[in-house]
């Protein structure tokens, strides 16, 4: 079996044991060390570690002091945490369609979606490639919108040399299957001193010092155990990313020129960190996306559908007054065609050849 992802945190064993033996396992010096290193990756002075990526999104919206009825414009093609965070923060979610070229929110659609109630633009850097920040950041500035990047899948990605997480508030996930993991965890990055200070107080039950409460806060803290898991990977981020890029290049080469299959691309000016390698099984393919997925599974090749529907297209959201359902034809089309193939660093050349051969065989190429 060639899995869709592999979790390897063996390099963290010594550091984790160091924390366990110290007896100080809650938030402490390891979290501080992790934050300092992560801030360097995002190119900003502040990185605030929290307990997961959803919390990163929620906390970022909370420190923006949104009022009921304030809107957040985001992508309809994303993991549900994006939408859940908006709702938990008490805001209204409005959606702008995506571009098929990068699976990210389309700036033209964003311009059409902005209303007088819009307060935040939340682009999602899906699969490891940043959205078009060259157009989105000026658009946000033009309308006076705060920028919150859902960079859960894009640690280390860049747009015109500028790292993900360096625009406004950047939100990262460190879940087990992400490029960098702490098992569970998240990070918020920012260059704004005031927002960083508010985030640190908010995550610690609203305390600046012990029993000195300044706001109604939460326990959003990361533990030193989790930080110790992530530090060795963070130190190897360049190597991890390069391996994923090599694997994606090999897949693109092997899967080129197949009728009914559209391979992903890295757009000019961007670096792709390939959290997922996602193809589109188009309408002229001899099999459907679901049929290809089933055949690959039979052949022992892991694959995944990320994501099968527009994020709002579920009963629990359809009648929610804080979810503004809109026409998003590109997102719906991509949700019907997208299929992710293994691209993780543990793949061998033989594994990559097997994946390519299997896909070509099923598609009759």
From TrEMBL:
Keywords: Pyridoxal phosphate. InterPro entries: DegT/StrS_aminotransferase (IPR000653), PyrdxlP-dep_Trfase (IPR015424), PyrdxlP-dep_Trfase_major (IPR015421), PyrdxlP-dep_Trfase_small (IPR015422). The keyword Membrane does not apply. The active site is at 178 (proton acceptor). Its cofactor is pyridoxal 5'-phosphate. GO terms for molecular function: pyridoxal phosphate binding; transaminase activity. GO terms for biological process: polysaccharide biosynthetic process. The modification N6-(pyridoxal phosphate)lysine is found at residue 178. The keyword Metal-binding does not apply. It holds the Pfam family DegT_DnrJ_EryC1. It comes from the Bacteria. Belongs to the DegT/DnrJ/EryC1 family. This is dTDP-4-amino-4,6-dideoxygalactose transaminase.
